[in-house]
Amino acid sequence: xARDRRIDKTQRALRMAMSELxxxxxxxxxxxxxxxxxxxxxxxxxxxxxxxxxxLVLSGFKEIGINAAEDVFSGSEEGYPNFAIVLFRGAExxxxxxxAFLSLDAATVASHHLRNMVIIQARxxxxxHSSEDMSMLEQEAIVHYLASGLLSMMxxxxxxxxxxxxxxxxxxxxxxxxxGLQGVAHVSIGER
Length: 192
Known about the structure:
Elements: H1 5-24, H2 32-39, H3 43-49, H4 53-63, H5 85-93, H6 95-101, H7 109-129, H8 136-159, H9 166-182
């Protein structure tokens, strides 16, 4: 069954309203009233689609193609995933939102959600590529290393006003991540 275009239009209008409003004021100061007025939709329409403004923000991940944690990493023929391309391209596409939600002083629901998705996907990938003698402690250290490294690079990139392309940032992160993983004897991935 085809999705109703009116639903897509309403949701896009509300996401665009959020994108515009976060450039004007702090996220905490944005109200549902601000959003519906800017998007020119009824308050009831907002609540028909979203629980609250955090839910609206999280729906933005779907806009860039991330419906679940498994969408965070792209596959690779070389044995390791492209750890970051989807996220960097999404941030590049929605620059104002990325700036608002990846600022160092804003520990937002979006940044927590992003970190959790990366952790989930990194954990699943690592379990399928590590030897059985790797301890849970080692696995979790690697998973959190990857998630923290990726978020730190994204924050740097966004706060420095996107000084290079999403593809260049992804390539840089992947090079660093793969070199780090290759240093761990229990992880088997392709040569880079």
